[in-house]
Amino acid sequence: MNVLLVEPDYYTRYPPLGLMKLATYHRSCGDCVQLVRGTTDNVDFRPDIIEITSLFTYAWKPVHESIDFYHKMFPDSQIKVGGIYASLMPEHINSEFPFVNVHKGLHEDAEKCIPSYDILKTVTKWEKWDASILFTSRGCIRKCPFCSVPMIEGEFRQVVKNIEKYIHPGHQKVILWDNNFLASPYWKEIVSTLQPLGLEIDFNQGLDARLMDEEKACVLSDLKMPALRMAYDFPDEKEAIVKAVETLHENGIRKRKIIFYNLYNFYDDRKLAGDNPESFFLRVKEVLNLGCVSYPMRFEPMTSLKKNKFISPLWTAEELEMVAKSRRVIGYGGVFPPYKGLLKKINNASGFREGFELYPAKKQKR
Ligand code: B12
Ligand code: SF4
After folding, report:
1. At the topology level of CATH, where does 2-110 sit?
2. Is 158 in the pocket of ligand 1 (CB under 6 A)?
3. In the chain, which ranges are E strands?
4. pTM of the prediction?
5. Which residues belong to CATH 3.40.50.280 in the chain?
6. Cβ distance 34 to 5 under 8 Å?
7. Whether the Cβ atoms of residue 6 and residue 66 lie closer than 8 Å to each other
8. Was domain 125-356 assigned CATH 3.20.20.70?
9. pLDDT tens string 299-358
10. Which of 152, 233, 235, 324 would bridge 263 by S-S if both were Cys, CB 3.0 to 4.6 A apart?
11. How far is the CA of 174 from the centre of ligand 1 (A)?
């Protein structure tokens, strides 16, 4: 069979991992595959199946454009759509395209396949890609109310233990997309495999501060990691956050290297509660005073069809705009580092408004 793999033309910094794994799976069945990005008539064969992936729900339009384009081009081919948006909003696809076969969740046969990096060579955006991406585990032990991982992937489970073969020869960097890497009983085995390779390691989805301890901090400190990300989303996590930072610091990880995602604009409809500007300001202040970097993370609903449209009842559009602007103006690269000037401003402020109001065109002291 001929299988056309389509990555819709949405913004992304990473190549389509799901399609790379599907390519390996199809090849193992004797099928021919080709990867394309967006809509193009540069297709080498008449496909029997067209497999389209999807990412953020708010990036649904390019997915629909791809379905429409390839259906018109190859009306007899079967079309399947999978990935995040397809899993979270299957009816949104089928209401416009009833003929589409929507795949929800993981593809169990493809999941364990080693991604076919070679298929990226035919796509200009990805031809120079040089990092290995993998999920060693799926699902999560937690159920944070703002997160769709438990819904898409379910219970925590290990999918890959022996990771060596998933690291492509020649790649200098390994990106782990595990949702909660430290929850894995194999965390130590995996880190011990990675360490002697000397490659740059990115725990891209952050590490769970509540699971950090002396042994983990010590083992992690041997890795080549330009940054270590964790999350500080709710005030009751404070004790675990402080402890995690101190433990990492005692094991030689610089505090400036630690980045905390700080969720804001979250509102839980079931509990009728959420964060507000003042509670967000306090978390940012605490992170900076710990000597770490704060990365404000605006809450996006699970079925959001337009990015940055949702406004929590506990926030105003103006307050959200203040955060966005201050990230650009008083922050650095979208984050708040613990620079002296910024720390002083935040510590002297009476609250959110004063903390995030903009300086009159003055340079930050670093
Ligand atoms: C990596 C990642 C990121 C990366 C970017 C990813 C990228 N590709 O560009 C970074 C770190 C930048 C990021 C940022 C954000 N992220 Co994010 N991220 C993820 C993560 C971990 C993986 C997403 C991914 O690329 N998957 C690639 C997929 C599709 O491959 P795969 O899963 O291996 O594919 C399998 C199946 O999906 C299926 N499949 C896939 N395609 C197809 C096609 C067919 C035909 C078939 C049959 C099967 C199939 O089979 C594959 C094998 O099993 C998910 C969580 C998760 N565990 O999935 C969150 C997730 C996508 N992120 C999420 C969110 C909310 C965000 C942010 C908006 C957070 C914020 N508030 O700032 C930002 C937005 C950034 C932006 N640019 O706008 C949400 C999305 C919810 C939604 N409504 O869309 C998720 C689901 C996590 C969550 N907490 O709920 N993210
Ligand atoms: S720990 Fe992370 S992946 Fe797990 S439920 Fe919470 S936000 Fe989602």
Report:
1. Rossmann fold (3.40.50)
2. no
3. 2-7, 32-37, 49-52, 78-81, 101-102, 131-134, 137-138, 157-158, 173-176, 200-203, 228-231, 258-264, 267-268, 273-274, 293-298
4. 0.96
5. 2-110
6. yes
7. yes
8. yes
9. 999 999 999 999 999 999 999 999 999 999 989 999 999 999 999 999 999 999 999 998
10. 233
11. 17
